[in-house]
Structures
1.
Amino acid sequence: MTARLAIDGGTPVRSKVLPYAHQDINEADLAAVADALRSDWLTTGPRVPVFEEALAGATGAKHAVAYSSGTAALHGAMASLGLRPGDEVVTTPMTFAATANAVLYVGAEPRFADVEPGSMLIDPKAVANAITPRTRAIAAVDYAGQPADYDALRAVANAAPGGPIPIVADAAHSLGATWHDRPVGTLADLTVLSLHPAKILTTGEGGAVLTDDDDRAAFLRRFRNHGIGAELAARRDWTYDMVELGYNYRLTDVMAALGTSQMTRLDEFLAARRRLAARYTQALAGHWAVDIQAVNPASDPAWHLFVVLLRLDRLGVDRGVVYRAMRAEGIGANVHYIPVHRHSFYRKRYPELEGSLPVAESAYERLLTIPLFSAMTDGDLDDTVAALDKVTEAYRAGWRG
């Protein structure tokens, strides 16, 4: 007999909601932040380059330029490409809106290429079809922590009119992941990280751009600092020169202190996420009501998210019903993502896109994110699977397998 769902008055699997993501803060992190607060520097100071060196060392990039948020870092990356009105950047609809927004910030236009079924990563064949003579860059997204196929994307970029054109990796999900044993940070011309509390590690808010290009790195440092040529700690007197238009996108020393402390546990965070993802995969492989994200054997994902795709043909309800029922069971399910072109702003700006990206649109109707973060326990995961079983069984639409 199917257990009565909590949303219908039954007993929930958990009395306290398990969030889909959560930061992992320890006493060393607290001590590092306290030391920064007691120091002479609160805003950008000596701790920022220490953090940047740690990021560069961990990723294999020559330069890491820290920013106040992942969105600010995306803005800086797009600006460093010299994009102008009329230029286009091919990107994916299966991402947070900031990826495409950053293209608009610099006056260029995003062109969306559909994703691959199963992985929900940008499809290199669709990218090739979206390239026009106005395309100036490709912006891939490492969805859920799995790197895109940068080898195939590089071939497309090299063949573009006027190419090769640069590739930007929106690696907000994939710090620590590898593709053919090459780390994220070495796969694209510019790699953008997010250091939000939901991500692999955190500075509170924060982001960074990774690059091997000296000139781009110098531009990125100016861009985050009002376009000023020398940062405060490097000045010898009161003079400074604003050489171009920039923004106040600086990371604080307090945030950098937290990030540097977190960096010492990056391998620990990744190992925990990978272990949990393996347990989910084992528990849900072949599940009658869900499919799991396809993973390319060449990839070792960082597992920022664990997503399932509901088998709506076997359920008598839509995703919204399952989502609400999971929340009632104490499981903080979420959805990643509403395709960018379906947001009201983008619908008005590009009405012709509706229905033009069928793989992403179909996946969105089925997507459900279930909890995954490094501090999760096996018991938390077991509760999540139990709730998913309970909810899907209750909504079984007469299917028998």
2.
Amino acid sequence: MDAARWTQIQTLFEAALERPPDAREAFLQTACADDPDLLAEVRSLLAADADAHPLLDSIALEAFSLPTDLLPAGILPAEGERVGPYRILRPLGRGGMGAVFLAERADGQFEQRVALKLIRGGSASGPIVQRFQSERQILARLNHPHIARLLDGGLTDDGQPFFAMEYVDGVPLDRYCDAHAGSIEERVALIRTVCDAVQYAHRRLIVHRDLKPSNILVTGAGQVKLLDFGIAKMLAGDADGPGDPALTQTGRAVMTPAYAAPEQARP
């Protein structure tokens, strides 16, 4: 797959996402009428969108094994590049609209490693930026020992927002339980910790909406951390408004089907 082909796929994918789910297939059938391979590729991205990588904006690139040399220069920073006061160390996760990197403070003020979240260059449409900023605002309201904390935020050299979160060196909850073969009591204790973090968010009128093992990491020391408020819903507050991307939007079901609550999955 060359860069021009990928651009065509990405453009159709983003156009499909702007349409209600029940209108996407008809749109794609028309747009890809003479190209069944193109249709299949875009469908695969839409399927992956429902099960995005942790920390990302629920829009997945992982459906493709796309070589990094096919990504146009400047789309995402390379290892060693600076973003604000941070130096990129390595990617942690990548999606169709953004990426999260392990980064370190590089301005000499103090030493710190963070999970740095960025919008991919060329994908910063109004709704995507709004959603990104909404997640940053939600994280700013949360201060709990079992929720990954917002540490910093700013703008890249080209004016796109970024934010730095607490870096959690852990594994998903289900993998942690399998590896440590914990007793029922130990597993229940972990779930209770997760519930405490979720209840804390609920008391601040924030609903996570994407609770699943990959968004709940456990460190080697057994500390639980809840991640990824990218599709969280604010029930009330300063950010509310008709165009608030944190609120439920008619016609755009953003969720992980295997873990979605019945009311999310219900047509």
